[in-house]
Amino acid sequence: MALTRIQPAAIADVREPNFRNILINGDMQIAQRATSTASVTTAGYYACDRWQFGLAGTMGTWTFSQDTDVPTGQGFANSFKMDCTTTDASPAAADAIRIAQRIEGQNLQYLKKGTSNALPLTLSFWVKSVLTGTYIIELYDNDNTRQVSKSYTISDASTWEKKTITFPADTTGAFTNDNGASLNLNFFVGAGTDSTSGTLNTSWAAVTNANRAVGQVNLANSTSNNFWLTGVQLEAGSVATDFEVVPYGVNLRRCLRYFYPIISISDTNSLNAFGYYYSASNIKFPVRFPTEMRSVPTLEQDIDTNALRFYRDSTYDGQSGNFLLDGEGSGRYVSFYNSTDASGTAGQAGQLYKYSPTQADSYIWLSAEL
User: Fold this and answer.
1) What is the per-residue pLDDT across 35-64, written as a single tens digit (0 to 9) for each?
2) pTM of the shown model
3) Residue ranges per domain, the chain?
4) Tens digits of per-residue pLDDT, 207-231?
5) Among 190, 296, 323, 351, which is most buried by a count of CB atoms within 10 Å?
């Protein structure tokens, strides 16, 4: 019996391209800051990496968490949960709340935006909400101040639903080829009349605020309102493919480009950094990042009394206050330092230790978020 040889091209034909999902951490696997943050009233990054709480004005109080409530049988382990804990049933005109991801322009050049060959984009995701009704998703072009919005409907309360939305190509305005935030993906969950009083803009156009979130329900109108999101994928073309599964380590490394915890909230009784004394009472800690960060990061910190301690060899040598970046740095490394009550000698090695489990909420973070 003759054997049939399978040609390599036949195998290659069934493969799907890697990293077709423009978004990072769409399955909500990574949560480096915390798995839950309560009493949130300001914009920022909480819980799942790369997913920002976008806020204009003031609109309710929220708890954000990395949750284990997921659609059954879809291969997801986590979702991003938004829980209203203080209501705002009558938002001011300028108020708006959304869950967003910002994307670097240099990662979007293949979309050929601003040319006659521009590609459409298709968004697919799983969503669940206590509050049924109309929700708005927006693509916002920061480089050219253009946007397009689409609506979707949550039909059944507290039930996972899969949604697929295709956005048209935009032949006007190219994305800048750099590491800046060229494109925002915005999941609106509430908005005042400044964003809802016009006609929903479903084709790319110059930004008119009144046309951005027309018809959007108000998730802030009840403390019973929870909102979950997972399996979020944005890809070139007009067809949604299956969610692209990325290994955990790859997913984490992509998140580390934007956020790197030197000392995490979850760290307790742990050695966190090695450094050296550059004077008797000043200690410096150089940090080399596991992957190149998007830009020179900023330092974020919250340090409780007695939480961090310095050591020379095995000798306790003082407690830490706030740290500062020392001006040396790039996307590959930085140095940070602290002036202490230590009594070391210039050139001696030093260690930074998170000491007390009762001060577990202390942290030192480096952020290069968009």
Assistant:
1) 999 999 999 999 999 999 999 999 999 999
2) 0.93
3) 17-256, 259-367
4) 999 999 999 999 999 999 999 999 9
5) 190
Query: Hey, what are 279's tokens?
Result: 């004077």
Average pLDDT of the segment spanning 249-267? 94
Q: Tokens 């979950």 belong to which residue?
A: 228
Round the average pLDDT of the chain to a whole number and report it: 91
Region for residue 238 given its phi and psi (left: phi exceeds 0; alpha: psi -120 to 50; beta: otherwise): alpha
Is domain 17-256 classified as CATH 2.40.170.20?
A: no
Q: Check: CATH 3.40.190 for 259-367?
A: no
